[in-house]
Amino acid sequence: MKRNTLTIVIGAVLVLIFALLLFVFQVRKSETAVVATFGKPTGQHYDQPGAYFKWPWPIQKVYKYDQRVQNFEDKFSQTLTADNNMLLTSVYVGWKISDASQFLQVFPGDSSVSLPNAQSKLEGMLRTAKSAVIGGHPLSDFVNADPQALKFDAIESEIEQSVQNELRTNNYGIELEFLGFKKIGLPESVTQTVFARMTSERQVLISLAENTGKSEAQKIQSAADADAAKTIANAQATATRLRAEGEAEAAKTLPIFEQNPDLAVFLLRIDAIRQSLNQRSTLFFDERIPPFDLFRNMPTNAPGQ
Amino acid sequence: MERNVQKNGLVNLVAATVIFVAALVVTTYAHTLAGQAGSIFMGLGVLVAFTGWFQMRLEENERLEKLEVEEFARAKGESALFEAKEAEVFPARRSRAQFEKYFVPGFAVLLFLLEAGGAWLLWRWLARTTAGIASDRAMASLSLFAIFALLLFLVGRFSVTIARLEGRRLLRPSASFLLAGAYVCAFTALGIAGAKTELPRADFWVARAGCVLLGLMAAEILVTLLLEIYRPRVRGRVARPLYDSRVVGLLAQPESLFTTAAQTLDYQFGFKVSETWFFQLLKKNLPALLLAQLAVLVLSTCVVFVDAGEQAVLEKFGRPVATLDAGAHFKLPWPVEKIYRYRTEQIQTFVVGYVPDAQSERANTILWSVAHAKEDNFLVANRAPVTVQNDNADTNNTLKAPPVSLISVSIPVQFQITNVTEWAYNNADATNLLQSLATREVVRFLAGVDLNNVMSSNRLAAAETLRDGIQASANGYKLGAKIIFVGLQDIHPPTTVAGDYEKVIGAEQTKLATILAARAYAIGTNAMAGAQAFTTTNLADATRLQLEVSRFAQAALFTNQIPAFEAAPSVYKQRVYFQTFVDATRNARKYVLLVTNTQDVMWFDLEDKIREDLLNLNVPNSQSP
Fold first, then answer.
1. Cβ neighbour number for residue B339 with a 10 Å cutoff
2. Residues 6+ apart with CB under 8 A from A13
3. Residue A1 contacts B, CB cutoff 8 Å
4. B67 and B212: one domain?
5. pTM above 0.80, yes or no
6. Interface test with A, best of B190, B317, B477, B570 (most A CBs within 10 A)
7. Strand bridging mode B481-486 / B490-492
8. B480 occurs within a structural domain
9. Which of A108, B105, B145, B252 could form a disulfide with B189, with the two C-beta atoms 3.0–4.6 Å apart?
10. Nearest Cα to A83, choosing from A26, A144, A24, A129?
11. What domains lie within chain A, and their CATH numbers?
C-alpha cells in the first residue's frame, strides 16, 4: 500500500510536469512569441513576458524569437570608389524583429532556422546598398586629415537608409536599428603600393636628415677655419707691430754709438765674428794672421836643408 | 530447440543489420543529429549480434562433436580413442576454446575502441557543427524512427524473453542491443519531434545523450576487461561473454536494475552479495529514495548563491522581477522563477586592432619591426599624396597609391556592466556589439587624423577621444556599460615599413653626430688658432723686449768702452780682438799654413765623414743558406 502511494505521488508529479510543458509556455522579457494553430498564426502577439496557455502540439505550436537587437558583421568586401580607388569595407549591423507574425510568414521555421535566414537576406541587401553608396563617394570622403572634409557618418547613414527603405518596402517584419563601419582596408596589391610610398617618404626624410647634417657640418668647419685664419693673421700683425716697436725703441741707442763710430764698427765686426763662429767651423790661417804671425820665420823642413 | 536459438541469433543479426542500414540512410536523408548517435549504437549492435551468433555456432558444433564421440566410443566399447591427443579428437571444442580465449577479448577491446572513439568524435563534431535537422524531412524521419523502434522492440522483447527463460547467455547480448536500440530509436524520434515543435535543440541534446551512453558503454567494457583479469574462476561455472554489456541490458530492461546489480556483484565476488541485509533494504526503499532525491532536487532550485562580482536577474515566468546582488537568495522553484547571472563588478577586457598571440606575447621585448600579435592595418589620413611606380608593371600600368597610410594599433578596452537590465535585455549579444562600436570608433578616429600626428604628440588626447566616443556610442545603444579605460598601448606603422621609420631615427642621429663632429673640429681649430696667435704675439713681444734690452745694454757697454778705447786705441782693439778670437774659435778646427814651406803639397778633405756605424753594417749574403 505504501509503495502504491509513493508510485502514485511520483506519477502525479510527472504528469503535472508533462501537462505544464504541454499546455503552458513562457515568454521572457527578451522574447516575443507567435502561436500558430495548425500552422496558421493566430495573430495574437506575445511580446510581454509571462506564462501563457496554449493547446498542445500538434494543435498549436509556439514560435519564440529573440526580440532584442541582433547584431552581425558582414564580409570584408571590395568596392570601387568614385575616384577609382579600391576599398575593402566591413560593416556591423543591428536589427530586430518588429512584427513577429510577419517575420514568421516571411522566414518560416524555428528561430534557429529563421534568424540565420533573415540575417542572410539582410546581408544580401546590405552588400548591394553598400556598393552603391561607396561607389558614389571618393576615397577622401572616407579618409581625410581634414575633419571637415570627412563624410564618414554621412556615408553610414546613406547605407542604413538604403537598407531601411528596402526592408520597409517589402515588409520583412524586421527593422534596422543601427549600422557602422567596422573595418576599412585596401586590397593586398594596393596595400603594397602604399607601403612602397610610405617607404619612399621615409627615404626622403633619411636623405634630408643625412644631407642636412653634412651641410651643417661643412658650414661649421668652414667657419672654424675662417676664424682660425683670422686669429692667426691678427696675431701675426700684432707680432710684426711688436717687432717694429722693438726696433723703434732700439733705434734710440744709435746716437750713443755715433760718439765713436770707429769703435762701434770694430765692435760690430767682432760681434759678427763671434756669432759666425758659433757653429762647427774649420779655419785656415797663415802666419800673417795674428796671433799666428808669431810663427813667422820659424824653421821649417824645407828641402835641401 | 537448440536449432531455434541459433535461428533467433540469426534473426537478431539480420534485424540489427537491416535497421542499422535503414537508420543510416534516414539519418543522412534528414540530417538528424540524434540519428547519428542511434546509427552508431545500432552498428555496434550488428557486431555484437554477429559475434554472439558465431559463438553459438561454435558451441553447437562442439555439442554435436561430443555426441558423435560418445556414440563412437559406445560402438567401439573401449577408450582407445582417448589415447590420442585431445586436440585431434575434439577440434570443435578446441576451436570454441581458442575463440573464447583470443577472439572474444580482442573483440571486447575493439568494441571499447569503437565505443570510446565514436563517443569522442561525435561529441567533438556536435560541438562544432551548425547543421540541424532538415525541417521538411523531419516528419518522415520521425515516422521511420518510430517504426524502427517498434520493430526492434518486438524482435528484441521476444529474444530477451527467450534468453531469460532458457538461460541463453549468448543470445542475451544481441537481444539487449535490439531492445535498447528500440528505446534509442524512440528517443531519436522524440528528439526530432522536439526540434519540430518548441524545443529546437532537442535533437542536439538527444545526440549528446547518445554520446554519453556510448561513453558509459566504453567505460563499462574497460572496467570489465580489467576485472576479468582478477575475477575468481569457479570450476564448472560458465563465464559471461565480455561483450555482454550490463549498461545496455539495464537500458533494455530498467526493471532489472537490482537483478543486474546483484548478478554483477555475485559474479565479481563469487558469493551471494545480493542476499545481504543492506542490499535488500536498498531494494525495498528505492522508490522512497528516488522521491526524496526529486524533492531535494526541486528544493535546491529554491536557493541561489550569487558570487562576488556578479549580479543576477530574477525572472518569474519570464518577467524580470528583481536584481540580485552577491550572496544567498531564496526564490520559487524552477521553472517558475529562474535567474540569469552577469559579471557586473568584474572589469572585462577586449582588444581592438590585434589578435593576441600567446607565443609572441612571451617575448620580453616589443619592437615595431617584429610582429608581436596578429595585427590589423588601419587606414589613416596622409597629408602628402605621392604616386609610386610599380617595379613589376610597365609604364602604362602604374599603380596609384591612394593618399592614405596604414597603421597598426593595439587598443585594450576595459569596461564594467553598470545596468544589468539594459545589458541583458536590449541587445542579443551586448559584448560583441560593444566590440563593434569600439572598433568603429577607432576606424572613424584614425580616418580623420594625420599619421605622424597621432603617433606622437596627439597620442594621449587620442586615447581620451576614443574613450569618450566609445562611451557615447554605448550610451546611445543603451548597453548599460561603463568604459573604464581605453589604452593606446601600441600605435605604430605596419611591420613591413617599421624598419624604414627606424632608419629615419638613425639618420637623425647620424645628422646630429656629423654636426657634433664639425663642432668638435671647430672648437679644436679655434683653440689651436688661438694658441698659435698667442705664441706668435708673445714671441714677437719677447723679441721686441730682447731687442730693446740688448740694444740698451750694448749702448751702456759701449759708453763704458769709449774711455778705455780712447786711452789705448790699438791695444784695446787687439785685446778685444784676441779675447773674442779665443772665445769664438775655441771649438773650431783650426789649420795654420806656414807659406815658407812651399815644396809640400797638402790635401784637405773638407767633406764630412760618413758615420762609422753605417759603414760597418754587415750586409747578409742572400745566397747563403
1. 18
2. B294
3. no
4. yes
5. no
6. B317
7. unpaired
8. yes
9. B145
10. A144
11. 2-66 (no CATH), 70-186 (3.30.479.30), 190-276 (no CATH)
A7, A27, A267 ranked by CB distance to B318: nearest: A27
Q: Grid coordinates in use for B69? A: 564421440
Q: Are residues B463 and B517 in the same domain?
A: no
The DSSP bridge pattern shows strands B311-316 and B319-324 to be antiparallel
CATH of the domain at B416: 3.30.479.30
DSSP string covering B287-304: HHHHHHHHHHHHHHTTEE
What do you get for the CA distance between the two ends of chain B, in Å? 121
Of B493, B521, B538, the one marking the end of a domain is B493
**Residue range(s) defining the domain that contains residue B568:** 499-581
Does B89 share its domain with B179? yes
Closest to B251 (Cα-Cα) out of B222, B304, B213: B213
Check whether B462 has a pLDDT greater than 60.
yes
Percent of chain B predicted with pLDDT > 70: 81
Identify the closest residue of chain A to B316 by CA–CA distance. Answer: A50
DSSP state letters, B591-619:
EEE-TT--S-------SPPPPHHHHT--P
Write out chain A residues lying below 8 Å of B201, CB-based: 112
Q: Which residues of B touch A267 (CB under 8 A)?
A: 558, 561, 576
**pLDDT tens per residue across span B371-386:** 777 778 888 887 654 4
B439: nearest CB among A178, A182, A205: A182
Determine which of B122-131, B248-257, B264-273 has the lowest per-residue pLDDT on average.
Answer: B264-273
User: Which chain B residue's Cα is nearest to A227?
Assistant: B526
Domain membership flag for residue B257: no
**Rounded CA gap, B20 and B151, in Å?**
12
Q: What is the structure's pLDDT at B50?
A: 92
Judgement on whether residues B204 and B248 belong to the same structural domain of the protein: yes
Question: Can you list the positions of beta strands (E) in B496-614?
Answer: 589-593
Residue B381, strand partner residues: B404, B450
The answer as to whether B221 is a domain residue is: yes
A299 in contact with B, Cβ within 8 Å: no
Residue B215 near residue B207, CB atoms below 8 Å: no
Residues B68 and B200 in one domain: yes
Shared domain for B487 and B552, answered yes or no, is no
Q: ipTM score here?
A: 0.72
- Overall domain count for chain B: 4
Domain match, B163 and B298 both: no
Contact B352, B413 (CB under 8 A): yes
- Residues 6+ away with beta carbon under 8 Å from A168: A175
Say whether both B452 and B510 belong to one domain: no
Q: Would you state the cell numbers that stand for residue B482, as one nine-digit string?
A: 561603463
Number of other CB atoms surrounding residue B326 within 10 Å? 15
Confidence of residue B87 (pLDDT cuts 50, 70, 90): low
Whether the link from the prior residue into A49 is cis, omega within 30° of 0, is: no
Radius of gyration of chain B (CA): 55
Indicate whether B213 belongs to any domain: yes
pLDDT in tens, A119-139: 999 999 999 999 999 999 998
